[in-house]
Amino acid sequence: MIDIAYVLAGAFTGFVVGLTGVGGGALMTPILLIFFGVSPTTAIATDLWFAAITKLAGARVHHTNGNVDWQVAKRLWLGSLPMALLIVGIVSLGAHVAKADWLTKACGVVVLVTAVGLLGAPKLVAYARGRRIAQPERFKAIQPVLTMVSGGVLGVCVALTSVGAGALGSVMLLYLYPLRMTPHRLVATDIVHAIPLAMVAGLGYVFAGMVDWRMLASLLAGSIPAVLLGSLLAGKISGRSIQIALALVLFAAGVKVLV
Questions:
Q1: What is the 8-class DSSP label of residue 94?
Q2: Alpha carbon 204 to chain centroid distance?
Q3: Per-residue pLDDT of the chain (259 residues; tens, 9 = 90+)
Q4: Domain count of the chain?
Q5: CA 155 → CA 123, 126, 182, 251, distances in Å?
Q6: What is the DSSP string of 156-195?
Q7: Is the dihedral of CA 35, 111, 193, 228 positive or negative?
Q8: What is the pTM of this model?
């Protein structure tokens, strides 16, 4: 049976995901923990599939608009998917890694730092652009490796806490690709990268029977229409406005994760 409260929570989060690329984990997991009293393991397990399916719906709009940077997404996958598979193996063996509270807190801190970073995005991008222009060959040489390493960090965080694919990835991409990663492209690439990552990370929780499918259905009933609306609006809003909105979302999410 569809639960209206979950539908509304899904709609809010889906809209934010479509507009900013962030929220599948950074918002939904704290919402489930704080407002609905869902157990941490169930919240993480269900949210991974919520994020994957919601972002799959929004990705088509961004792909149609030509905003996805597939080369960058592939580099991230080379790091994130193997690390997520490693965690899946551990979860499938019955380890209680989802209760690693210290890692959840650490992700919350990084999300807050990310919010500050996005608010100061013009200075961050200017600094990175200066390095890119001053040492173009060196900068471009280390881009692929650093992107894969960044993907690996995201893979661990997402598999353990369901938080990080959009939140942490956004600032990483802004710094690593200061010339090509426009705000709209950032949102689109974040969303596309997160889809297989969330699915792979969620497999271990499915095998362990931790996903609440009824709750997931209610969440998706709200999120899928909302993510389509948010994705359509993302292309009509100024890039800096999206960055500010993203920063505010991350700040709220970081506070909720820590509290």
A1: T
A2: 19
A3: 899 999 999 999 999 888 888 778 878 888 888 889 888 888 889 999 999 999 998 888 877 778 899 999 999 999 999 999 998 888 777 655 545 566 567 767 877 877 887 788 788 778 888 888 888 888 888 999 999 999 999 998 888 888 778 777 888 898 899 888 887 888 889 899 999 999 999 988 888 888 999 999 999 999 999 999 998 887 777 767 777 877 887 788 778 778 7
A4: 1
A5: 28, 28, 23, 21
A6: HHHHHHS--TTHHHHHHHHHH-TTT--HHHHHHHHHHHHH
A7: positive
A8: 0.86
| Residue pointed to by tokens 């905003």 | 67
Q: How far is CA 206 from CA 41, 235, 250, in A?
A: 11, 35, 28
How far apart (Å, rounded) are the C-alpha atoms in residues 207 and 93?
10
Contacts of 166 (CB under 8 A, 6+ apart): 17, 20, 21, 22, 23, 24, 25, 26, 190, 191, 194
Q: Is 209 exposed, middle or buried (0-12, 13-18, 19+ CB in 10 A)?
A: exposed
Please, are residues 170 and 247 in contact by the beta-carbon 8 Å criterion? no
Tokens of 26: 């950074």
List the structure tokens of 118.
Answer: 């996005």
Q: Count of CB atoms within 10 A of residue 108's CB? A: 22
What range does the domain containing 57 cover? 4-258
Three-class DSSP labels, 210-254: CCCHHHHHHHHHHHHHHHHHHHHHHCCCCHHHHHHHHHHHHHHHH
Whole-angstrom distance, CA of residue 259 vs CA of residue 257 = 6
